[in-house]
Amino acid sequence: MRCATFLGVLVGCATPSEPLLIGDPPIKVSSGPPVRVSGPDYEMEFSPTGVYLPSSLLVGASRVEALGSSDECGLDHAGIAILPALAISASTRSFAARSEIATPLTGPAVARVHVTFEVDYMCPGLETAAGAVDFTFFPSGRIVRHDLEIRPSTNRLGLVGNCGCQHVTNPSDFQPLYFWSYWAFTKDEARKQVRRDGSEVTSADSNVPESCTMYAARSVGVRWTPLSEDTNVVLDGSDTADHFFEWPTDPNREHLDPTPQSVSSAIQLSNRPWSAPSDCAGVLDALAMPPLATGDELLASTDPDGIYRDPARHTSAFTIKPLSDSIPAGFAVSVDLGGASHATLTRSPDAERVGIVQREAGDRFLIVFDAGLAPSESVTIDPSF
Q1: DSSP secondary structure letter of residue 67
Q2: Do 146 and 165 fall within a single domain?
Q3: Same domain, 337 and 233
Q4: Tens-place pLDDT, residues 193-251
Q5: Cβ neighbours of residue 173 under 8 Å, at least 6 residues apart?
Q6: Gyration radius from the chain CA atoms
Q7: What is the Cα–Cα distance from 266 to 67, expressed in whole angstroms?
Q8: Domain co-membership, 127 together with 172
Q9: End-of-domain residue from the set 227, 251, 285
Q10: 1-36 pLDDT per residue, tens
């Protein structure tokens, strides 16, 4: 089955003169305020005030809230923690904060929200935390987050009594310094936090780069991809629903340098009832991005935004296929089709619907594929001019 389409619409079977648009776009963006991104089975809303980070993530047909909230200076929603100074999230209200939000990609296949922030706090003198966070959204329920050059402070921090949320006078009570990127999910009905084999994560565990928070009839998978070797992934244990990534600090936690840090993480939302904690493996498999071949190019993995980017310029047919491991459903590839007005996509084995096409800058296009690819399967793209 050969499916031709104008570039920029849903890919189905159609002639070049009759492009086929199937239903509503799977990814929609409301520019707000507040900014909202809606997928087929979820909706994320960003705070319209304070720091414009996510304030809500509704999942499933009943739109259950997935993000958790806590007391001031505790971990909530999805943000950055510089403890004991502050947590930077949609709940940041009592600190001087400056933030901007933009939507560089607005669907129909992929959306992206770009948030920048600067937050002032006292520790003990005036300090400023700053950085940017990208959230990239896919129809499959995958959301990729990329923290870009997050700077925890203006000056090197040390152990002091008056630091943000901490106000103590006895040096023995001074809290150690932590610098985290985190996701905080609701604790309502949370059953446990487990590894892919179903074994429970405890508060003593560290260096756990992926895990699931399991609820009564749904689950959330989280995977971290450090952009530095000197990093540590820590999970908070079965009594919480927090997943956090610890950036390098002084081994004794007595100092924190204002060195910008970056990390990429991804979550996978699953509304399927699970029968055993080991079902976490299937959720995490949807976040795997193993090597992929696009024509003569070998892409070791995706970029930090979760998209495979092919650097070649294609003016003739080329094939997309896995190198060894299967590629999960909903994967996205960015390709340069050399100025083509439309293209023919052929999947082997045949499929009535191949995926979704979205225009990028210049001659580049994003294609999100409905089904995954096993090592024996492939998609051929033939640009037409």
Answers
A1: B
A2: yes
A3: no
A4: 899 999 988 777 777 889 999 998 899 999 998 665 555 565 554 455 788 888 877 88
A5: 161
A6: 22
A7: 14
A8: yes
A9: 285
A10: 445 444 544 444 433 333 333 457 899 999 889 999
